[in-house]
Design goal:
With 318 residues, the protein is α/β, with parallel strands linked by helices. 41% of the residues lie in helices and 14% in strands. The chain binds NADP nicotinamide-adenine-dinucleotide phosphate.
Length: 318
């Protein structure tokens, strides 16, 4: 549908998701990518974004730019998580509409679904009940993005589509313990404790919540699949369809990293939502499936972590 030299703008190309999408597109011959860092183009700035779209006129936009973080970051900076994500996505969606972008792929997150929704989470459960409070600010912004893309589809008949990935992990993740997600935080903690004579590792919560994890290269392939196919609906879950307890995940990572000490569960810290398993049958029926199993993915990620330990990104909370 798109030529290999179609102009494709990847917003957030330096992030974990954006960089994996960039690699997948380049590997598949898409060679006309437009890439801007946040220093070159602050996506919160409406007039700069408008001017950028007028100048560049991309045919496709992939929105992997967002203010992203874990439970602590979300609860300490609710306004930033709500407002910055709204600003970034509104500017991208509206400028894309005004400059006649042919395809817009919006990336959200499984936290858009209600806290106590039936499992596995189907796309139609969106907005059927209240959200998990620890990340509702981020979730409300993402829901607004999904709805804005749906409104563009309905009103202008354009191919604006939203993908909701489950928890992602992989190369170029954020391993900063104050702002990271659970899987990279565990890799960092078990690694540091192993280096420190197998000292005990303290993990947040009770270990009982269940979570699903997808390697970021699999998500990048889902984005490529969405680029190359016109999907009939406005919203698709992206995941493996398989979950495990946080305790099982911890034991798996402990094993892969080779830490021999004790695991202590700090139950004064929040658990987050009890379970968040995606129903991925819609995207499976259309032909996409993940390829990387969790053990393989964690080994790849730990090996990347070791190779890059001196230059890991630090995401400061402010
Ligand atoms: N990580 C996950 O587990 C996960 C799970 C589900 C969904 N997602 C979704 O995937 C998307 C990307 O997540 P990620 O994990 O790749 O995040 P990330 O590594 O933190 O990357 C976010 C990117 O957004 C860009 N950005 C942030 N604020 C910006 C601004 N004001 N102007 C321009 N660019 C800005 C950053 O650009 P610079 O580097 O140039 O500063 C960065 O490259 C998000 O929409 C997120 O909801 C992630």
């Amino acid at each position: 549908m798109f030529l290999k030299n179609s102009k494709i703008y990847i917003a957030g190309h330096r992030g974990m998701v954006g960089s994996a999408v960039c690699d997948a597109l380049l590997e598949n011959g898409y060679n006309n990518l437009v890439l801007k860092s946040s220093q070159e183009l602050d996506l919160r700035n409406q007039s700069s974004v408008g001017q950028f779209f007028q100048d560049e006129q991309p045919e496709v936009v992939i929105d992997a730019a967002a203010r992203v973080g874990g439970i602590l970051a979300n609860s300490d900076f609710p306004y930033n998580f709500l407002m910055e994500n709204l600003q970034i996505q509104n500017n991208l969606i509206d400028s894309s509409l005004k400059t006649d972008v042919k395809k817009f792929i919006f990336l959200g997150s499984s936290c858009i679904y209600p806290k106590h929704a039936k499992q596995p989470l189907k796309e139609e459960y969106l907005l059927t009940d209240s959200l998990e409070p620890t990340n509702e600010w981020y979730a409300i912004a993402k829901i607004a993005g999904v709805k804005a893309c749906q409104a563009v589809r309905n009103q202008f008949n354009k191919d604006f589509v939203s993908l909701m990935p489950t928890n992602l992990y992989g190369e170029r993740d954020n391993f900063d313990l104050n702002s990271s997600h659970v899987l990279p935080a565990m890799i960092r903690k078990f690694h540091d404790a192993k280096e420190n004579n197998d000292s005990p590792v303290t993990l947040w919560g009770s270990g009982t919540p269940m979570r699903e994890f997808l390697h970021v290269e699999d998500l990048a392939n889902a984005v490529l699949f969405t680029l190359e196919n016109q999907l009939p609906e406005y919203l698709y879950n992206v995941g493996t369809g398989v979950d495990m307890t946080i305790k099982q995940l911890a034991e798996k990572i402990q094993n892969i990293v080779g830490h021999k000490g004790e695991i202590v569960w700090d139950e004064s810290k929040p658990n987050g939502t009890p379970r968040k398993l995606m129903d991925v049958s819609k995207l499976h029926r259309l032909g996409w499936h993940h390829n990387i199993n969790l053990d393989e993915g964690i080994c790849k990620t730990y090996s990347w972590f070791l190779d890059n330990i001196d230059s890991l990104k630090e995401v400061k909370l402010n």
